Amino acid sequence: MKIAPFATEQYFSLYEFNTPHLLSVSDCQMISIGELLDMAGRSEKELLALGLGYTESQGNPDLRAAVAKSYKKVTGEDVVVLTSPVEGIYLAMQAMLEPEDEVIVLTPAYDALINVAEHISRNVRRWQVVPTEDGWELDLEALDRLVTSNTKMIVVNFPHNPTGLLPDLDQFRAIIQIAQRSGSWLLCDEMYRGLEHGQKPQLPSAADLYDRAIVLAGLSKTHGLPGLRAGWLIVTDDEARASIINWKHYTTICPAAPSEYLALVALEAGAELAERNKGIIRGNLRMAESFFAEWRGFFTWRPPQAGSVALVGLAVESANTYCHDLAQSAGVLLLPASFMGYDDRHVRFGFGRHSFPSALKHYQALLKKNVAANS
Fold this sequence. Notes:
This protein is α/β, with parallel strands linked by helices. The protein contains 13 helices and 15 strands. Helix 4 (61-68) runs parallel beside helix 10. The longest helix is centred in the C-terminal third of the chain and has 25 residues, at 270-294.
């Protein structure tokens, strides 16, 4: 059975590496291997001496123990190290879902969270975030209505990609209570956890609150290390974890030794990396506030509460057409929200890189040029 096209990744494959002004990337500022080693006080000799043999399928025990320290109730045995964070979505859904199982997915969302569930279960119900005048909110009553006795899994991601929504603790506990009532698994994508740059505090991990949670996390977003492809699942249920590891044997077998070593180094410097990237985001958001205030007739700006991205309304007939034209004619990259299960009148902006100010200035000059040409 064919799976739906991975629209976001196909779109980025067209433009990400040949378009100079990137305004929609979701990761944070990259650093080099040398900078990472220096930040953690490690010698490059350790990396160069690393053997390139097979590694443990579940992951290096030292790395799993280091990951577990980020949680309150998690041990190293609960951690499954991935070869890529997106692998975790595939493994968790293959292991836990059967055809016709009912799955509820918070949308919009990264394509894989929707498409893999639809591919396996063919029975996905979408729980949409709700736009307000100046932000986004969750409709918990709508979730309660969607969940039935047949619901096998609820899929959420917080901080939310692409809106930047971050629920408060009471709301998060309410989601978990709804999952508990139906006995559902809660697949919680926490890739942006640690990028709480506003007034709302960090949520506890779902892994510390619910024994049927499966948590996805990694180093691509908060730590700004997407090239490591380092990620992990937290699975406290022994049977579920064994099933996931069995599926891993059929996909990547084991993590890459250099990535595991560098992931362990990155966790040692984790607080410094996260604070650095939150500072970049805060600075870029201040510039964005001024930009969107100036262009409020063309954009609908709802500031993100956390994370490195925001979903922005656009006064065009088709954001998809607009974004392709913008990339091809002006070298400016924005992501249409339709790729992530939302309407064709929104785009995603990303605020995690040093290049954002120059890209935004280029885009602003283009907008002014278009206004002048049409006046």
